[in-house]
Design goal:
- The protein has 471 residues and is mainly α.
- Among the domains are: 35 residues; 241 residues, no CATH class.
- It is globular, with a radius of gyration of 23 Å.
């Protein structure tokens, strides 16, 4: 293809190049198009824009390949998660957790537990995905017998899981935020406490209120039916929790996800063969197509018949398309121009932080969590220095906006994965109940205007439960 001279990327062209593909995705989803097809069409729209801007096909091809490279690890992990869920069902691991959980959990405390347990696990392990795919699967499986909508339970689980994604010192998002803004890691963590603590408390209160409203709706017949169905179809024993414990310990020890999930799958196969009587070849079938059993109880079948390599193919295909689209956003230069232009027009500390928030939100809509941290950090850190703003404040705002909102963007890879792993729940059922994604940015913006948690450039960052600005 004949190369053209590159056009100058003006602010107006950057606006068009950024928002046109997003508008295409949103419009197609609203009329009922599958998100994968909507993303594919948006990808072609972005290709045409890049060609119009004079980007050579070689660079377009390389950018899409780089985008695929960036999401390759995530796609493999999701395939491993699908396999692990299948063999943990076959091994009796998840059925055992479901069985015991339904004996002790009541609707009143269920939603707060759905928020707190994944939050604790994600802080310890640094991964929202690990929390969602382990304890999240169990908690959402219990919702049917407790009279609580699956989407509500899933929303609480995802909100809790993203507490660690945002603030755990082991989280890749936390590490990237500290690195991109050139802030010591634990200085970044201390700064985030100002918005994380009140945001989590607000979310917890909301989930308690929702739980109280559901406290009279427990279906004891359904709980008994589920418990009896599980007990009659699986060997239920506390020993079956060992694979979960091993995976959590390995995650806390920061063992690479490939190895951690690989060991989890191996233990699931061994447990399935020893304790549930499934043959090796049968387990290989579970790994590919998901666990399948007829317990005689339709509600139990719905909960336990899931997982497998094939169940993740649609998701991984969509993620690859999203990665390619993200690569085109990068090579076109639209995001760099937009954020750079914005940073030059803001001249007060509060307006700069609003610009950071807006840029981070824009990046997470266009390219996901990592661009929402990296690009605004590069664009605004010198501006913060000039305006006597501590870079820890910048890093915190990026975590409070782009990182948490990444969990509710319908075409975001992680958002799509939530529904798939948690039992095929629509993302549109989950998003309204993921309160952290909405509360945290609001708290961050309010605190920005009030000056709470604001530190000057050379000021030591300390956390005070009750903020007081020194005179």
């Amino acid at each position: 293809m004949k190369e053209r001279s590159p056009r100058e990327m003006t602010f107006g062209l950057a606006i068009a190049g950024c928002f046109l593909p997003l508008i295409v995705i949103v419009a197609l989803i609203l009329v009922g198009t599958d998100v994968a097809i909507a993303t594919l069409i948006a990808l072609f729209v972005m290709m045409i824009f890049c060609l119009y801007m004079g980007v050579s096909w070689k660079k377009i091809d390389e950018a899409m390949a780089e985008g695929v490279h960036q999401v390759a690890g995530a796609t493999i992990i999701m395939l491993l998660v699908g396999c692990m869920v299948a063999v943990w069902m076959a091994s009796g691991t998840i059925p055992t957790l479901l069985y015991y959980g339904m004996q002790i959990v009541t609707p009143t405390f269920y939603l707060p537990i759905c928020f707190l347990l994944p939050a604790f696990m994600s802080i310890c392990t640094g991964t929202s995905w690990g929390s969602i795919s382990t304890i999240g699967v169990v908690l959402c499986g219990m919702s049917a017998g407790l009279g609580i909508p699956a989407g509500m339970a899933a929303g609480a689980v995802v909100a809790g899981a993203f507490v660690g994604d945002k603030a755990s010192p082991l989280s890749d998002c936390t590490l990237l935020g500290a690195s991109a803004c050139e802030v010591p890691l634990f200085t970044h963590v201390k700064s985030m406490l100002y918005t994380m603590v009140p945001s989590c408390l607000i979310c917890l209160v909301i989930y308690i209120i929702l739980g109280l409203r559901a406290s009279g709706e427990i279906d004891t017949t359904a709980v008994a039916e589920l418990s009896n169905g599980i007990a009659s179809s699986f060997d239920v024993s506390i020993i079956h929790i060992i694979p979960v414990v091993v995976v959590l310990v390995l995650s806390i020890k920061q063992v690479p996800a490939f190895i951690t999930f690989g060991i989890g799958i191996g233990l699931g196969v061994i447990w399935s063969m020893i304790f549930q009587g499934h043959g090796f070849i049968e387990n290989m079938g579970f790994l590919l197509s998901g666990f399948n059993i007829d317990t005689g109880v339709e509600a139990v079948n719905t909960i336990v018949c899931r997982g497998g390599f094939n169940s993740m193919l649609w998701l991984t295909g969509t993620i690859i398309l999203i990665g390619m689209l993200s690569g085109l956003f990068t090579v076109s230069g639209v995001l760099t121009v937009l954020v750079g232009s914005l940073s030059k027009r803001l001249r007060s500390s509060r307006s700069i932080m609003l610009g950071v928030a807006g840029s981070s939100i824009l990046m997470t809509m266009a390219g996901g969590q990592y661009p929402s941290i990296a690009i605004p950090a590069v664009a605004f850190k010198e501006v913060c220095d000039e305006m006597d703003i501590n870079r820890a404040v910048l890093a915190r705002m990026l975590a409070d906006t782009g990182v948490v909102l990444g969990s509710v963007v319908p075409w975001n890879a992680w958002t799509l994965g939530q529904g798939v792993v948690l039992g095929g729940i629509s993302v549109y059922e989950i998003i309204p109940y993921n309160f952290l994604a909405f509360v945290c940015p609001i708290v961050a913006i309010i605190f920005n205007f009030l000056g709470i948690g604001f530190f000057h450039k050379d000021e030591e960052v300390k956390y005070h439960l009750i903020w007081r600005r020194k005179k």
